[in-house]
Each structure stands twice: as structure tokens, then as C-alpha cells.
């Protein structure tokens, strides 16, 4: 049977992308600036307009959103400060009102993880740990076809694992010593500024300088990679994944070169070699994952499954935001209750 077409939206602080997706393949894609300063309603208006502009006849819409998403209410919590009035927004209700479509919402990095696990670098593997390195460091966990959301939707928050390289450094979450404080893109740029006095540089310039032989730039990126390797090894030791998938705009080759040996050195010997691979879907990963979540949230027809994972992974419509994710949502299933985000 031909897979249905699903609309997908990836909302970011600076741009919003939308796509039509069928069976993990992006059929059409468009994007526009996110009207972040105009508030949540304007952001959802933009998302709906992008979906309508693609035409087609999608059966549902999935949204990857910044911030935590409560798996029981579909509401955004612990919202990003980059979008005004984003906290406590019911994204599913908002898109249903604007588009007349059922849907699902999950954290953007959880969407990345679901997309890569089902249709990308982790396809066919039972347990996948995903991590995206960009403005922040986020992650997600998919196990036995289900995305962990956790009790509050915070499962998979890779960026907030404490590491020795970040001791004393403030994290955007308000705590100190988390890996995001040293390994995120802005953290690497800040680390370079602290070493050299070169304030205000973008990470792209720090990377360029590292490739040109600047020892301070290379040291900052190396420290970030080593810190992230230690954090991911701790999670690998806890979860015993089949693969760790790393993506995001700040996951540059120099960071990965430092990450891999630090990760291998800190993993339990009994695990053997844990595969650590780059993401396969690029910037489509969040869209593909959001579409997958929406598809899983649809009622399953008698005698068939609504999505690619096993038919036994039922959907709890009360937790459609996690849409067959009992694994860590944007990056969790309540107290890891299995929602079959």
C-alpha cells in the first residue's frame, strides 16, 4: 500500500521549514524567516502558510518545535527565549485550527532523532542515540521503535550532562558544568574569545582559523569534541545503543575527530566498539522525524500499522505529541511510560 503524504514543519529561531513527506522521502520543501519577535500566533500562521503553499493533500501535520514538549498535553514548556510568547503554546491545537489536520508535536532534536532512527543513519537498528550540535546540544533516544519522552518530555537532553571540561562554566539552562557550556557552537566561539580576545566571531570563522593552523581555534574545538565524547560515552554506558548518530551545524569534522577517541576511551569495555556515525538526512532529519511522529499519531486501520515501525507500537492519542515515542522526546515516555513521542 502506498504510504500517505504527511506535512512536516521544523520551527527554528530564525527560519521555519515545511515539507511534504512520504515514507521518509521529502517530496517538496519550502521555508521562510520565523517571525520570532511577533509571537507564537505569528509563528504558527507562518508554518500553516508554508504548508498550504506546498499543495498536495497531506493527511496530517507533524511539527518539530524548540523547547520541551509535555508528552501529556502537547504544550511547549521550558520554551526558547528566541520566540516571544512560545511557552505554554499548544502547537497541535494551533495547527489543527489553521490547517484542519490532525497532528503531532515533538522537540526539534527529538524529531531529528526519530527521523535518523527510522529513515536515516540508524534505520533498522533497535536502539539509537541521536545528538545534534548547533546553537545548543540536544539529543534523543529511540528504543524498539519508540522515542523516549520521559516524565516531562526532557528525555535525551544530552547537552545537560555534566562533564569535567565544563566545570564552572555557565550553561544556558542556568546550571554550570554541562557539556553544552563547552561544546555548543556559541560556547566554542566564546571559548576562542576567552583565549584570544577575538570577541564576536561566528563559529564558522573559528573553524576557518583552526583549518588555517590557528592553535587556539583548534584547541577550543578539540576540547569541545572531547567533552562531548565523554558525555556520549556516559549515555552509551547507560543505554547500550546500537549506534550513536551525530549531526547539526556545529558537528564539524574537527569536532568529530576529537570526539571519537574520547568516546571510545570512556565507553565500557564490555560494550565493544559502539558505532558512532554522522547523520544521513542533513537538514531534512527534523522534517522527516516530524512527519513520522504525525503518521504514528494517526489512528491505525484494522489489520495494519500507520507507520514503518512494528504494528505493535500502538499510539496513545492522549500523548500524540510523542506519537509512538516513549523515548526521549526533542530530545522522553513519561517516567518513561511507553507511548507506542
Annotate the secondary structure layout:
Layout: E1 6-11, E2 15-22, E3 25-33, H1 40-53, E4 61-65, E5 68-69, E6 76-77, H2 91-99, E7 103-107, H3 108-119, E8 127-133, E9 137-143, E10 146-147, H4 180-183, H5 185-196, H6 203-211, H7 215-239, E11 243-247, H8 253-266, E12 275-278, H9 285-297
Parallel strand pairs: 1-4, 4-7, 8-11, 11-12
Antiparallel strand pairs: 1-2, 2-3, 5-6, 8-9, 9-10
How many strands? 12
Low-confidence stretches: 304-341
What value does the average pLDDT take?
88
What name does the CATH topology of the largest domain carry?
Nucleotidyltransferase, domain 5
Strands ordered across the widest β-sheet: 3-2-1-4-7
Distance between the termini: 25 Å
Named at the architecture level, the CATH assignment of the largest domain is 2-Layer Sandwich
Look at the structure and give the CATH class of the largest domain. Alpha Beta
Structural class: alpha/beta
Keywords: Kinase, Transferase
Organism: Micromonospora coxensis
Protein name: Glucokinase
InterPro entries: ATPase_NBD, ROK, ROK_cs
In a nutshell, what does this entry contain?
With 341 residues, the chain is of the alpha/beta class. 33% of the residues lie in helices and 18% in strands. It has helices at 40-53, 91-99, 108-119, 180-183, 185-196, 203-211, 215-239, 253-266, 285-297; strands spanning 6-11, 15-22, 25-33, 61-65, 68-69, 76-77, 103-107, 127-133, 137-143, 146-147, 243-247, 275-278.
Amino acid at each position: 500500500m502506498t504510504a500517505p503524504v504527511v506535512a512536516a514543519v521544523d520551527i527554528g529561531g530564525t527560519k521555519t521549514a515545511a515539507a511534504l513527506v512520504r515514507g521518509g522521502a521529502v517530496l517538496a520543501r519550502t521555508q521562510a524567516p520565523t517571525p520570532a519577535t511577533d509571537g507564537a500566533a505569528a509563528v504558527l500562521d507562518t508554518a500553516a502558510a508554508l504548508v498550504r503553499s506546498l499543495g498536495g493533500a497531506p493527511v496530517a501535520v507533524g511539527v518539530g518545535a524548540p523547547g520541551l514538549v509535555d508528552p501529556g498535553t502537547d504544550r511547549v514548556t521550558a520554551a526558547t527565549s528566541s520566540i516571544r510568547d512560545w511557552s505554554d503554546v499548544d502547537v497541535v491545537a494551533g495547527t489543527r485550527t489553521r490547517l484542519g489536520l490532525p497532528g503531532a508535536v515533538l522537540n526539534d532534536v527529538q524529531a531529528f532523532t526519530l527521523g535518523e532512527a527510522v529513515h536515516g543513519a540508524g534505520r533498522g537498528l533497535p536502539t539509537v542515540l541521536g545528538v545534534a550540535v548547533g546553537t545548543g546540544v540536544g539529543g534523543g533516544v529511540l528504543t524498539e521503535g519508540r522515542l523516549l519522552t520521559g516524565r516531562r518530555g526532557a528525555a535525551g537532553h544530552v547537552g545537560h550532562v555534566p562533564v569535567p571540561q565544563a566545570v564552572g562554566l555557565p550553561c544556558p539552562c542556568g546550571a554550570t558544568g554541562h557539556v553544552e557550556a563547552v561544546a555548543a557552537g556559541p560556547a566554542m566561539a566564546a571559548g576562542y574569545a576567552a583565549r584570544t580576545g577575538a570577541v564576536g566571531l561566528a563559529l564558522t570563522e573559528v573553524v576557518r582559523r583552526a583549518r588555517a593552523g590557528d592553535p587556539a581555534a583548534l584547541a577550543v574545538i578539540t576540547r569541545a569534541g572531547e567533552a562531548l565524547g565523554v558525555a556520549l560515552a556516559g549515555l552509551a554506558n547507560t543505554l547500550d545503543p546500537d549506534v550513536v548518530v551525530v549531526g547539526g551545524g556545529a558537528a564539524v569534522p574537527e569536532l568529530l575527530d576529537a570526539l571519537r577517541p574520547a568516546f571510545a576511551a570512556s565507553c565500557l569495555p564490555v560494550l565493544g566498539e559502539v558505532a558512532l556515525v554522522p547523520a544521513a538526512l542533513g537538514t531534512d532529519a527534523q522534517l522527516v522525524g516530524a512527519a513520522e511522529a504525525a503518521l504514528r499519531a494517526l489512528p491505525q486501520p484494522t489489520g495494519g500499522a500507520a507507520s514503518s515501525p512494528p504494528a505493535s507500537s500502538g499510539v496513545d492519542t492522549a500523548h500524540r505529541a510523542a506519537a509512538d515515542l516513549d523515548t526521549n522526546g526533542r530530545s522522553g515516555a513519561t517516567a518513561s511510560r511507553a507511548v507506542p513521542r
